[in-house]
Predict the 3D structure of the following.
Amino acid sequence: MDVFEIISVGNELLNGKTLNTNAHWLAKAITELGGFVRRCTVIRDDVEEISSAVRESMERGVDWLIVSGGLGPTYDDKTLQGLAKALHRELILDEDALKMVKKKYEEIVGHGLLKRVELTPARMKMATLPKGSKPLPNPLGTAPGVLLKEGRMNILCLPGVPAEMKSIFKESISPIIEERRKGFYHEKSVHITGIVESELAPLIEEVLKSHPSVYVKSHPKGRKEGVSKIEIQVTTTADDPSTALRRVEVALEQLTSIIIDQGGMVDEERMT
Amino acid sequence: MDVFEIISVGNELLNGKTLNTNAHWLAKAITELGGFVRRCTVIRDDVEEISSAVRESMERGVDWLIVSGGLGPTYDDKTLQGLAKALHRELILDEDALKMVKKKYEEIVGHGLLKRVELTPARMKMATLPKGSKPLPNPLGTAPGVLLKEGRMNILCLPGVPAEMKSIFKESISPIIEERRKGFYHEKSVHITGIVESELAPLIEEVLKSHPSVYVKSHPKGRKEGVSKIEIQVTTTADDPSTALRRVEVALEQLTSIIIDQGGMVDEERMT
């Protein structure tokens, strides 16, 4: 299974202004494509921080490093500088990226939002990429995505604007991950009442002994009218979708029957 | 200003099931208390991962390390094991923590949700803390928070259940951070239209030259009816609240007047 790490770049994620929905969306998309997200790191707009975080991921060893944020035209968009530093590569003006940026500004001029396309330093910056990069078209914005390889590691940079991030990922990257797919992920959740989490713990351990390839997690959901509710999530990744489905179903069946034996009640949820 | 790092522990944060609202809430609370959040790391429920992430934060040097998640009774709650490993400390049954846990189960028995208080291994686990820890009362759940010192670094462990995390932070930690406060944070945002982000970039740089102590960030908010909208956020941290307020106001005034000169329009928002 391909191992992924995500780096989210942006001061607004660290001062509490912006909720990091990008990392959440990416983690879900990658998991559904059969990948394994090992770590997510949130750092500020700082060349040294970006460079260190990239190098730390490289040292841990990953198949994919996804960096979101910091590709725009303003002074605090520093992802490509940080990446170039981490990889000891030059930043060079990429002709294909420049064409993409130019085309976008022609569209903006076409909409009457700008008088003429002028390739200012701020705009050229979005086309100035670490040597060996491949720019990826951005269907919804001006800054292209960036894909490059360093050894066996694929590095993908995406803009921080959520719609742009998602559209580049879906158009340019999902098909590549899908093609490399070695695992199929499946999950199912149930809600239980009538049993507290500390009573549940040994029951889960019992089920895991006979089903070592599934993963079971309990999420306490608080009390309602004096009844404590717990969500139990069973997940697995298998070589094919039907094995994954079967494994989850069998483990969940055993778990729910033990819970009912112990006086708990189980509400099945629709599959998530 | 105190430097903070946040570590969020939980597989559910890395497989896309759960949005990391805890880190967002903590980052906002810490920023408002005058602290500086330098990094946030999301890792899975794994003793080695937890231990490595804690050691990495220690090596970078922080005043506060806040770890959320993984304090509960189930097999995959491993934060205290990981922390003990990172700090080379023994895990010992803490008498005060045990009293807190016992009291909580007596309340649960009182509500008729459990027949009697039995100190099972799963429950004792929540009171088994790295040597030298101080347990913190959890007003809304069973697992106590944990506070300990390692050199100059304060390490705080909070449960992953959002309501419990918040209540322990507010009751036990906010007052300590407040007392150590050396900086006052202030921010204000405006929305602008009629100018694109790449035109804005050099204007922001101009303002920053004369106001080096403020930080200006632009957030593109997409187009509505053909008009592109950008949010500009001006922030600073100063020794006292009125200096912080004045700095932001002065910088924002200069910036908006330049933007209007360039044909942009500015909508003031209420203070965020």
Chain B has a mean pLDDT of 92. Chain B touches chain A through 76 residues (CB under 8 Å). Chain B has two domains: 3-180, 184-268.
